Amino acid sequence: MRKRPLESLFAGPDGRVRFPRVTALVGAGGKTTLMYALADRMVAAGLRTICTTTTKLFPPDAGVPLVLLEGEGDPAEAVRKAWGSASRMVVAWRRLPDVGKLEGVPPETVDALADALPEAWLLVEADGAARKPLKAPAAHEPVFPRRPGCCVAVVGLDAVGRPLDDAHVHRSALACAVTGQEPGGPVTPGTLARLVAHPEGLFRGCPPCRRLVFANKADRTGAPEAAFEAAALSLALAPSVEWFAGSAAQGWCVPLAGEVAADAWHPALT
After folding, report:
1. Cα(89)–Cα(74) distance, integer angstroms
2. How many CA atoms lie within 13 A of 146 on its CB side?
3. Domains assigned to the chain
4. What is the DSSP string of the chain?
5. How confident is the model at residue 266 (pLDDT cuts 50, 70, 90)?
6. Which of 34, 97, 113, 200 could form a disulfide with 248 if both were Cys (CB 3.0 to 4.6 A apart)?
7. 233-255 per-position pLDDT tens digit
8. d(CA 229, CA 262)
9. In this predicted model, what pLDDT tens digit does every residue of 142-174 receive, in sequence order?
């Protein structure tokens, strides 16, 4: 099956792309890269786009407007003043100099911005992963806005074959509890499927919305086969979750749901 542009994550049955007003991103293995890549696609489609977080986020590249809301009485008004001719911006609460990151905004602020700025589309990084390719959420995670239109759970395919330990999986003890695996055993496609399907897994506490999995780094050797197997296993456990393999850095995806059930998809990505 041919690779599709990244925005095809949001294509409907008719093939038309409809970006959700609010998209939450959770999991590990490329959330920030995916968020900024999707922002590029939204801007190309003529949409004003806000990237933000309810946790922590590295500052954007130079040239991308950054709005810090600490001390601002009206978050929406602060954003309006900063728009100017910009087509996208990053919104956070304040800088955290000790860690080099930005502190995120409360989830209710995301909701308020979505309500007050109908001209803006929001991408929200709602989870942290300590730069690991895989994770399981703690009791306080993820930190969702109240009304996302879609939640994208990211898993890094480079985790497959590596030990399920703290060096490779954020909160590995919780990942073991969710997947039923022994500490230090290899991460398998089944590990990914169970992390997606389990109530305490990647979609833990997710409000009702469309749920997608983006199996990132599918350009690596053996990764397409792992993504295919994980999606097939996941369909039996959580049939409503849609799976895609792809590369956030390269800007492409391949849908796995539907074709997987009919054994119609070949793992070789061309």
Report:
1. 17
2. 9
3. 4-255 (3.40.50)
4. ---EEGGGGGB-TTS-B---SEEEEEESSSHHHHHHHHHHHHHHTT-EEEEEESSEEPPPPTTS-EEE-TT-S-HHHHHHHHHTT-SEEEEESEEETTTTEEE---HHHHHHHHHH-TTEEEEEE----TT-SEE---TT-----S--SEEEEEEEGGGTTSBSSTTTEETHHHHHHHHTPPTTPBP-HHHHHHHHHSTTSTTTTPPSSEEEEEEE-TTSTTHHHHHHHHHHHHHHH-TTSEEEEEETTTTEEEE-TTTTTTT---S---
5. very low
6. 34
7. 998 889 999 999 999 999 999 99
8. 13
9. 999 999 999 999 999 999 999 999 999 999 999
Specify the residue for token string 């409503």. 240
Full-model pTM: 0.93
Q: Are 59 and 99 in contact (CB under 8 A)?
A: no
